[in-house]
Design goal:
By secondary structure, the protein is mainly α. It is built from nine helices and no strands.
Length: about 240
């Protein structure tokens, strides 16, 4: 095989390795999405069996994170990627870290939901508020992964803006729970667990924003963390 054909073969093989890594990230994202969905369902429907499944299934996500991380390490060592290829590897490492943390938040949902099903239902469960918050963060997670798959900067920026809606819903629910705690301190344990569930959902939104920021970095080579949205809008949104 002459040098030209050898270089082409190596290049094709490298591209296949990168595509395989991207696909594994999306597979991991799918697992994380399902965990969040199951955790929210367990919480809203007081499904103890599903809550237990969510609480005990985090190992699958952790295993995939380790596998992808090792793949990235091998590519860095053997291929010494540069420019956009290097940005892809860096982005993947960051994305899977956030996905693993979202998996951790889903695990918390499972554990707290299991605890809540064992408590007497003698106060409002705040299902309506939790459902609304949960649907917001589920859509953010799904859309952020879709933006990553399509390398869609415009979508990523639009999704990141939706985090303010999540924060507003979370603060409203937090105030409601705080007011109820003042009215009936005997329910402190249950109210705190509901608060922790809400906090877990809010954190899913935060990690989804991080994924959106990584999409911008991957495509544009620009780190927009800690940058005001007005500055981002003037730079990227036409």
């Amino acid at each position: 095989m002459d040098k030209l054909h050898l270089d082409q073969h190596i290049s094709q093989q490298f591209n296949m390795e990168l595509e395989d890594i991207r696909n594994k990230v999306l597979t991991m994202g799918g697992l994380v999405e399902q965990q969040v969905t199951n955790g929210l369902t367990a919480l809203l429907e007081a499904d103890n069996d599903l809550a237990t499944k969510v609480a005990e299934s985090d190992f699958e996500i952790n295993k995939l994170e380790v596998e992808i991380d090792e793949d990235c390490t091998q590519v860095l060592a053997r291929r010494q990627p540069a420019a956009s290829d290097l940005r892809l590897i860096v982005t993947v490492i960051k994305v899977i870290t956030d996905l693993e943390r979202i998996g951790d938040e889903a695990e918390k949902l499972g554990r707290f939901s299991r605890d809540l099903t064992d408590m007497a239902d003698d106060l409002p469960s705040y299902r309506k508020e939790l459902r609304h918050l949960g649907e917001l963060v589920k859509s953010m997670l799904h859309d952020s992964l879709d933006a990553f798959a399509r390398l869609d900067v415009d979508a990523a920026l639009a999704i990141a803006q939706r985090d303010e809606d999540v924060n507003t819903e979370y603060r409203t629910l937090e105030r409601l729970l705080g007011s109820h705690l003042v009215e009936d301190p005997r329910q402190v344990s249950k109210l705190f667990k509901i608060t922790w569930c809400a906090r877990a959902l809010e954190r899913v939104g935060d990690h989804s924003v991080n994924i959106c920021e990584y999409v911008v970095y991957l495509v544009k080579g620009r780190d927009i963390r800690h940058t005001s949205f007005d500055d981002i809008r003037s730079e990227f949104i036409k």
